[in-house]
Specification:
With about 400 residues, this protein is of the alpha/beta class. It has two domains: about 15-35 and about 45-220 and about 400-410, Rossmann fold, CATH 3.40.50.2000; about 235-390, 3-Layer(aba) Sandwich (Rossmann fold), CATH 3.40.50.2000. Helix content is about 40%, strand content about 15%. The two termini are about 45 Å apart.
Length: about 400
Amino acid sequence: MKPFWDLLPDRIEQAATSGPIRKLRARWQRSRLTAMPSGRPTGPRRLYVDLAVISRHDAGTGIQRVVRALALALLDADPADWDIRFVAADRRRSYHVVTWPNGGSAVPLEEMTARPGDLFLGLDFSLDTVRRYRSQLTRFERAGGRLWFLICDLLPVERSDWFSPNNVLRYKGWLDTIVGLAEGFLCISDQTEEDLHRVLADRYGMDGGYRTDVVPMGHDIRESLLDPMEVADTPVRFDVTAPFSLMVGTLEPRKGHADIVTAYSELWKQGSDERLVLVGRMGWAVEGLRDAIRAHPEHGAKLLWFDDVGDLELERIYRACRGVIIASHAEGFGLPLIEALGYGKPVLARDLPIFRIHERLGVRYFPTDGSVLQTAASIRQWIGEIHEGSIDVRRPDANWTLSARTLLTTIG
């Protein structure tokens, strides 16, 4: 019952806020931003980077790899014009400075405050803390600070049927909050930036008055690890000497795992010995898929699923796999695709615009709404090309150092 009571104020607010009211409120909130005090900094500008989630619990998801990698790259950049401080918040305490990556403990008595020129960067996917401490962030802005937020995708708004009702509610409450506060938004792809402009116009009536930029994503998992040297000592729990294809990502409806498992089942009926390895935590609304995987006659042999793989083990699995399959029905970016290419691995992706932009790097595609036989045929052809060595994989140009540099240039 705890999530129900925690989200009750948001339920009431969402139910009471119609489209016109939401647009009027966003317009009123943003009109107040122009009245905020400004002035020249009296010392080095402070860049407060929100790590409210990963400083407490790093679950190793794709979003958290992005957050961790960008935070570490910002530290390495050591910009002369910014004093970088990591901050977090929880139920008991509002945003305050923490010592991440050295344990994430609080710095005594160092609450987050602003002076003109300071900036709060909503880097982490802190849906609850941003909503809970909206008044603190408002005070930060009124004191002359600025706020920017990282946007990974807009799917919980545009395709709420793919997500749990609670997460949709949390996301909408978070978006409602930051829309009234943000000077700008950092997007992880051109697609996400385009989606953001559309949602801000349709949901909030915002046709301008804010800034956006696209931050290129890196691909090397080692650059997101707190201790990259640990990789060599991390075991993989299955035999990686026999060829296998890999899918990476939480099991959830939009990731398309069911289509690929069904297609591989068809290949196995035809006598194929190809293995499929799934790496991803159990998500929502996929209980049927979970049961089908566990009851599958090839489970534990040609079909393997690991729901607790950390980044250290994942890095080794990427290096060992034959290729990576990306079956998502929609993505804001598709981190496993770019990670796979970064390790020189062939990729077979659903034929979506967000994935087509990587065609020049050697990505192959299967039909968006193809039948089981069509998808199986695409997989068979792709595996054949891999075996023949006829796929020319080109590694992406971007890295996390470039990501941090672009971010700092944008907010500067």
